[in-house]
Structures are given as C-alpha cells and as structure tokens.
C-alpha cells in the first residue's frame, strides 16, 4: 500500500486528488496540507511514501517544503505538481530534491503511474524531457569557484569507476537504460546495476538527481 500526503492550497484540487487516489486498491491518502509548513509537519509525523506537492502555496511554498522534507533524510519522496511543464518553479523543485513533476492537467492514469514510479524510487519525468528542462533553465545553476572545477575534482564523483562516470554522463544526456545498453554494448541488467551503484555512490535520490549532478559537475554541458 502506497501512502500519500496531498499538499495543495486549493480544497477542490485536494478533494479531486483524494477521490482519485482512494479509488485505487494500492493507495491510501494519509493526510492533506494547505501550505508548505503543514506539509513539512505532516510528512514528519506521518512518514508518507509520497507527497503530492503544489508549488505556489501561501506562506512556505512547495519548493522550500520539498527542500526541508528531503533534507530530513526520511524515505518520503516528493512529486511536484505544477501548472506549467517547463516553468522555473518546477526546475527549482527538482533541485530541491523532488523525484519528478507532473502538470495539473495530466490524465488521471498519468498521475497514478507517477505516484507508483516515485514510490518505487524511479523518476517520473522522462530522461529526454528532463534534459530539455535543464537545458532551458541551466542559467539557474550556482556560479562561483566550485562551478569552474573540473569534473574529476568534484568529491561526489571521486568513487565512481570510469565506466560509472561514462554512464552518469550519458544519463545526463537523456539516454534511457535501453539506449545505454545498446550504444555501449552492455546487457540492460548490467546497466541497471551500474545506475544503482551510481545513485548510491553519489548520494542521488533518483535518476533525476543524477542528471542534475551531471550538469552540476560539468560532465554534461548545454550547447
């Protein structure tokens, strides 16, 4: 059973999401929050598998709430639900630790599939769409001395093997596991093993965070 916390300042949106989720045999809604502060508090109390997180809410917004929830180190994963599929707030939400995002006009089956994917540690956003998002908002990446460092100097990459670094690079370029297996002449099961080790070694919560890491460390650069 996947437990879900709904965080949205619109009562009708929360009601609709609750009705949809509770129609599923494998999901249950454990709470509702009308703002970011409530979401943080309830996430700490209820330890839901997934938080459906709106971005624009009064007081503490969804981005900061996401940052606080993920920083707590709990197993809870965040699925951002936003109005625009390429808006900068969604990008900021991903950088804050969200495992993906959907638009509010997504089909019900897309939302359900997204929740199930996030709950199992997968990413909701397709790799190609993730790359387009990062390409569009790469100017939001931090600047300063650390951003000028070469990839091999970044401590997050220090424990990666050459093959793992290669795979992290192509993950950042938007390749799927199938594409990686085909182009690098590996078994797909081997690719999955490599991806799992990359996530563990770099402390990335999921594939999206690995893509962001590839950009942060300049393994991948926009044209």
Explain how this protein is built:
- The chain has 223 residues and is an alpha/beta fold.
- It is 50% helix and 13% strand.
- The protein has helices at 11-22, 36-46, 62-71, 88-95, 108-119, 127-136, 145-148, 162-172, 177-184, 188-202, 207-216; strands at 2-7, 27-33, 50-54, 77-82, 100-103.
- α2 (36-46) packs parallel to α3 (62-71) and α3 (62-71) packs parallel to α4.
- It is globular, with a radius of gyration of 18 Å.
What strand order characterises the main sheet? 2-1-3-4-5
Intertermini distance:
44 Å
Strand percentage? 5-15%
Class by alpha and beta content: alpha/beta
Morphology? globular
The average pLDDT score comes to 85
DSSP summary, beta strand count = 5
Number of helices: 11
Q: What is the H-and-E element order?
A: EHEHEHEHEHHHHHHH
User: Runs with pLDDT <50, length 5+?
Assistant: 143-147
In percent, how helical is the residue content?
40-55%
- Tell me the major beta sheet: 5 strands, parallel
InterPro entries: CheY-like_superfamily, NreC/VraR/RcsB-like_REC, Sig_transdc_resp-reg_C-effctor, Sig_transdc_resp-reg_receiver, Tscrpt_reg_LuxR_C, WalR-like
Domain Response regulatory: 3-119
Keywords: DNA-binding, Phosphoprotein, Transcription, Transcription regulation
Modified residues (4-aspartylphosphate): 54
């Amino acid at each position: 059973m996947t437990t879900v916390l709904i965080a949205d300042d619109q009562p009708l949106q929360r009601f609709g999401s609750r009705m949809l989720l509770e129609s599923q045999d494998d999901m249950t809604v454990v709470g509702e929050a009308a703002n970011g502060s409530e979401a943080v508090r309830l996430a700490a109390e209820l330890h839901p598998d997934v938080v459906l997180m709106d971005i624009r809410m009064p007081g503490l917004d969804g981005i900061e709430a996401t940052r606080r929830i993920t920083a707590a180190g709990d197993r809870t994963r965040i699925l951002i639900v936003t109005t625009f599929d390429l808006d900068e707030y969604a990008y900021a939400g991903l950088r804050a630790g969200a495992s993906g995002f959907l638009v509010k006009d997504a089909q019900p089956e897309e939302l359900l599939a997204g929740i199930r994917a996030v709950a199992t540690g997968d990413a909701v956003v397709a790799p190609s769409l993730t790359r387009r998002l990062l390409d569009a908002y790469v100017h939001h990446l931090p600047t300063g001395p650390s951003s000028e460092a070469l990839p091999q100097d970044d401590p997050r990459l220090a424990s990666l093997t050459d093959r793992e670094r290669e795979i992290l690079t192509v993950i950042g370029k938007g390749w799927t596991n199938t594409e990686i297996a085909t182009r690098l002449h590996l078994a797909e099961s081997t690719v999955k093993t490599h991806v799992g080790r990359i996530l563990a070694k770099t402390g990335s919560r999921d594939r999206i965070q690995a893509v962001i890491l590839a950009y942060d460390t300049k393994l991948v650069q926009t044209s």
